[in-house]
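Q: Hi! First time asking for a complex rather than a single chain. Here are the components, and I think there are two in total. Is that enough to go on?
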Amino acid sequence: MWGIRSGDESAMAALYDRYSSLVYAVALRVLGDTGAAEDVLQEVFMQLWRNPAAFDSSRGNLGAWLGVIARNRAIDGLRKRRPETDIADVVVSVEPDMAGDAERARAMETVRGALGGMPAPQRSALEMAYFEGLTHTEIAAKTGEPLGTIKTRIRTGLQALRKAFEA
Amino acid sequence: MSEHPQFADDLALLALGALQGEERVTLEKHLEGCPACRRELERLRGDMALLALSAAGPAPPSRSRERLLKVIAQEPRAQKTAERRSSWTFLPWLAAAALLLVAGFFWQQSDRLAQRVAQLQDESGQQQAQLERAREVVSTLTSTDALRVTLVAAQTPPQPQGKAIYVRDRSSLIFLASNMPALPPQRIYELWLIPTNGAPIPAGVFKPDARGSATVVEPPLPAGVEAKAFAITVEPEQGSSTPTMPIVMTGAGE
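A: Yes, that's all I need. Here is the structure of the assembled complex.
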């Protein structure tokens, strides 16, 4: 439970303590540079501070949402492009509860288990799309595999993740 | 699962932001009209969000926390929004949103109805005008007060004349006669439609007025009969179903 009134700095500090590791880890994985990752971290929490209404609590959980925003901002930075999506447009509908430390740890374990259980080419297609922000054409060019194969790998990869949480 | 399997792969790519070009445009267009695929996209984004959890690494340096809190302290937020986690606290918001939706729906409905009413009024106004015009035409044609003048070559003695105007597709017939000779007692003129095939069809009876004028307007006729000619006979007052010879007047279509 976080009966927190936002607009309140201590509430923001509590949110930061809970989710900063996740946001920072994603940004760092994408950007591979601690300074740039810190900037994304700062930016993501500033966005939440300035526009808390952008996060719609009825449609997703905050941890997942912050993760998506961090990833998108980091990819934008990586590809040297202007932010493509407004944070208010990001709707995330996700099952596992990431609010508590224990739940988050459990969810992390499940995701890693699911990724670990995937065939290597599938896992790498998924990671290239997610952490490198590559399009399917770029992935196909990089791996030398047909477009259709890449597309299917990505879709079935996401499905496998979903299944891991449904089980 | 997607209800449109042809988009399943592309939806996953779109969730990851990995779909570009024409395929992206096509899918986004489809999404505008497909709530099922929009829902699936949301779920896929949720699945994608899980990938963030696979990133592990060192915790951010403590200076990041200080930096953020310092900036926040300098930038107090104008609008304070309560964000609570337990599901029931956003129920009032859900209810308000639902009300808004319902209100919006009715507003839209009533707007649509108002438009429809205006449209119908417009249509019925037009129909009214057409009807009035048609009435005027018919009343001019059939009025007993109407002055009917048949123009013929000069110095020709008045001749009995009939004009039949027949529209086959609508089985609609208007007949005007002038200078008709007076009838013997208990007799009536009968108009006949002579079809290209088959027996003459009764097309109304008439008695001319004192000046010899008469009209037959829209007599009951079978549908879509091709007319070769029209003819007039003199019949007993109740009319006949087959013409009694002789034919007193006849005319073929031009």
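A: The longest helix of chain A spans residues 9-31. Let me know if you'd like any chain examined more closely.
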